[in-house]
Amino acid sequence: MVITELLERNARLYRDEIALVEINPSEERDNAVTWRDFSLIENAMPDAPYRRELSWKGFDRRANRFANLLLSRGVKRGTKVGILLMNCLEWLPIYFGVLKAGCIAVPLNYRYSSEEIRYCLDLADVEILVFGPEFVERVNAVVDQLGRVGMKSFVGRELPPYAEDCRSLMGFCSSSAPPVALAPEDYAAIYFSSGTTGFPKAILHDHRGLYAACLTEQAHHGQTREDVFLCIPPLYHTGAKMHWFGSLLSGSRAVLLRGVKPEWILRTVTEEKCTIVWLLVPWAQDILDAIDSGRVDLSEYYLDQWRLMHIGAQPVPPSLIHRWLKVFPHHQYDTNYGLSESLGPGCVHLGVENIRKVGAIGKPGFQWEAKVVDEQGRDVGEGQVGELAVRGPGVMKCYYKDPKATAEVLHGDWLYTGDMAEMDADGFLYLVDRKKDVVISGGENIYPVQIEDFLRRYGKIKDVAVIGMPDPRLGEIAAAIIEVKEGMTCTQAEIDAFCQELPRYKRPRKVIFDHVPRNPTGKIEKPALREKYCHGRLVEAQITH
User: Is the CATH code 3.30.465.10 the one for domain 307-434?
Assistant: First the structure.
């Protein structure tokens, strides 16, 4: 089976039941007007206010219309179609329309600069670009350099002169399924690496992998028809989309929330009766901080139906989860490890039944295998640090047009992740750090994640990142960039005193108080921090030893 068949099945079985809801709190016009008053069905404009919804039948019909629009332009099997949209009701129907046409979907990070957009479109050989109003200025800046991109399809008002109105053109196209036969081995999508280690790479996946991701997600989280999934992270990323695949497989509703304020998240869970919420570390922390400060009063929300909170996309501090479960003791908790090269979350999976192992990323997920290896590819012993390798149905086919990089990470069926990990006596895997983020100080390996987890236990710290800084004597030293909670102050002396519990070689030699930048999927942008602080350009707020 290919994944488009699941959409067609849901359209047949559940027709007028709601598949997707979009909520945009920033579009609220009048606080006296309720969300329900703004409820718009299927024909709503993408920038209309506040709440829109789409049935399974409407979802499938829109996908068919977009597929038929592509076919009317003479696309060939394998044509690459870039998608540059914020989360909205149009996103997934366009994605599925690309697949139904036999084309390859190429989602783009909505934070890309103009140059990154141009670079990724060129790298992936994109011939058609679908983009929204938020990106007009960035596309304008490079439109004359997009020679390969012939069709530029716009989703929104105020049509740029070089683009076509996607919605108007779709209205002239058939809503029937296009006559394109798909096979599991057909190429389906190109995703881009997060770029936390440099310019992104293009990651090629097939239909077999997409369908396998549906099975893995539902096996882990048990989505049923009664569940409602709240999706906040960006759909261009494998994490958000592959978690939503559990809703696709079960035929259940999903809510796309365009905003991350704690009040918006809790109000959406209440109003939409959400049962499963996937959060990133900063958002979970913001919710707890808002509750602790009194800014959020849980008695104002109805959350009894919320059964599962899970986190992924970056290392999860155990202290955060212990804190969460004190506030929400009835929640199941889970974490999933994955990367775009493995089609997102689930190749390693903790499991809600293993709460005693909070801090671990888990065991190999459904249909997956994992091992920890040394530099020669040999399995390391229990408790020893090595590189995590995974094998399963979601392993990428290759880095598109980059055989050298492909050979560096694909060893037979095994994908070498670049993450350092260790395994305990029970077979649970613990993430130690990114291989490239390890700090080597005076011959000692220092793993920043371990120091970050320790520092987050200090009550005044909102977020922290540890990086290596050049040092003429030790080679590198560990530097901690600390973001203090709102309304609090923190001193170097406090951090020094707290770090006395750490072995001397692990204590940060430099402390900097500043904002900790994270990308849209919650990963700390350590290259940006190294660029900022390893070239002598320290901000005035810096405090050093």
Answer: no
Whole-angstrom Cα distance, residue 118 to residue 22? 29
- The owner of tokens 């990089």 is 405
34 pLDDT more than 50: no
Distance of CA 272 to the CA centre of its chain: 22
Q: State how far the alpha carbon of 94 is from the alpha carbons of 88, 120, 129, 153, 161, in Å.
A: 11, 19, 11, 11, 22
Q: How far apart are CA 3 and CA 43, in angstroms?
A: 25
Give residue 300's pLDDT: 94
Which residues lie closer than 8 Å to 117 by C-beta, 6 or more apart? 84, 108, 135, 138, 139, 142
CATH of range 438-544; options 3.30.460.80, 3.30.300.30, 3.30.200.20, 3.50.50.60? 3.30.300.30
Domain ranges of the chain: 3-206, 307-434, 438-544
Homologous superfamily (CATH) of 3-206 is ANL, N-terminal domain (3.40.50.12780)
Closest alpha carbon to 53 in 18, 87, 85: 18
Model confidence pLDDT, tens digit, residues 341-357: 999 888 999 999 998 99
* Sequence-distant contacts of 454-458: CB under 8 A, at least 24 apart: 454/499, 454/501, 454/502, 455/480, 455/482, 455/495, 455/498, 455/499, 456/317, 456/319, 456/320, 457/319, 458/494, 458/495, 458/498
Backbone angles phi, psi at 268, to 5 degrees: -70, -40
Strand 276-279 to 308-312 pairing: parallel
The whole-angstrom distance between residue 389's C-alpha and the CA centroid of its chain comes to: 20
Q: Over the stretch 451-488, which tens digit does the pLDDT of each residue have?
A: 888 898 898 999 999 988 887 666 678 899 999 998 89
Work out whether strand 429-434 and strand 414-423 pair parallel, antiparallel, or are unpaired.
Answer: antiparallel
- The distance from CA 238 to its chain's CA centroid, rounded to whole angstroms, is 6
Instruction: Give pLDDT tens digits for 245-285.
Output: 999 999 999 999 998 899 999 999 999 999 999 998 878 98
Q: Does pLDDT of 43 surpass 90?
A: no
- Confidence check: pLDDT of 35 > 60: no
Classify 344 as helix, strand or coil. strand
Say what percent of the chain tops pLDDT 70: 90
Chain segment 177-186, per-residue pLDDT in tens: 999 999 999 9
